[in-house]
Write a structure and sequence with these properties.
single chain, Arc Repressor Mutant, subunit A, 2 domains, 244 residues, alpha+beta, 5-stranded mixed β-sheet, 7 strands, Nonspecific Lipid-transfer Protein, Chain A, 37% helix, two-stranded antiparallel sheet
Length: 244
């Protein structure tokens, strides 16, 4: 898009203002490098549109595409121009925490998206031993309640079926509660005290979860309470919970 203005805001928006572009930059700045990884973090974007946006960002000097040696496919790395946008993206997220949280709906709390970010947040260097299994059970889901993170050889993998190994840490909670704790809207202690989160397993791992499960980059961001005059958007959900 062209605004035909000399204003630097207008020129920046010509590059960044297309739908999905800011979210693609978010994924790149948070470590996404492979096409499939970027697509997982973006959710509903089509492969064709993601390809088009990455090509545009490459042409604008924000992304460097490199073929993977000995393999098919490419890696996409942020350039210095892209990395300079990190404080902009963080500031945009902080603005959203202050002024747009009341627009969250039940549909926004997607378990696939949450697990993708939890997978990305695990620090294998802080986990003892060569292999660790973490199980999450989401009591508010009627299907696919159980998810596992398998950490092996410093790599983290999401599993929807139980790995052939004993679980080291169990989380039992709801999608919303796990989101709130990871995002920094509430503490682990608060959620556990309210009986909305149960953490069980090896004491060396359960005593300080945030040491190896890193919180969101917005954990320390300032937050304003949702004004009493604004109703939180909520989509009624009728589901029959079946205990696994």
């Amino acid at each position: 898009m062209k605004y035909s203005q000399f204003c630097p805001v207008a020129k920046a928006t010509e590059i960044l203002g297309e739908r999905w572009t800011i979210l693609i930059l978010r994924e790149l700045l948070l470590g996404g490098r492979r096409f499939n990884e970027l697509q997982r973090g973006l959710g509903d974007i089509s492969p064709a549109l993601l390809t088009s946006r990455l090509k545009s960002l490459e042409d604008q000097g924000l992304v460097a595409r490199r073929r993977i040696t000995g393999q098919r496919g490419f890696v996409y790395a942020p350039t210095a121009a892209c990395e300079a946008l990190m404080p902009v993206v963080v500031a945009l997220g902080e603005w959203g925490l202050t002024w747009a949280r009341h627009l969250l709906t039940d549909d926004d709390f997607d378990v696939d998206f949450l697990m993708f970010y939890l997978e990305r947040s695990v620090d294998p260097e802080r986990l003892p031993g060569g292999e660790t299994v973490i199980r999450f059970r989401f009591t508010d889901l009627s299907e696919q309640r159980n998810w596992w993170l398998l950490i092996r050889d410093k790599q983290v993998q999401i599993c929807i079926n139980a790995p052939p190994r004993d679980v080291d840490v169990y989380f039992t909670t709801t999608v919303r509660t796990m989101h709130d704790v990871w995002m920094g809207d509430r503490t682990y202690r608060d959620a556990v005290s309210a009986d909305e989160l149960i953490i069980e397993g090896e004491p060396a791992l359960t005593r300080n979860v945030s040491a190896w499960l890193r919180p969101s980059v917005f954990v320390a961001a300032p937050r304003q309470p949702i004004p009493a005059s604004v109703s939180v958007v909520s989509k009624p959900v009728a589901m029959e919970l079946a205990l696994n």
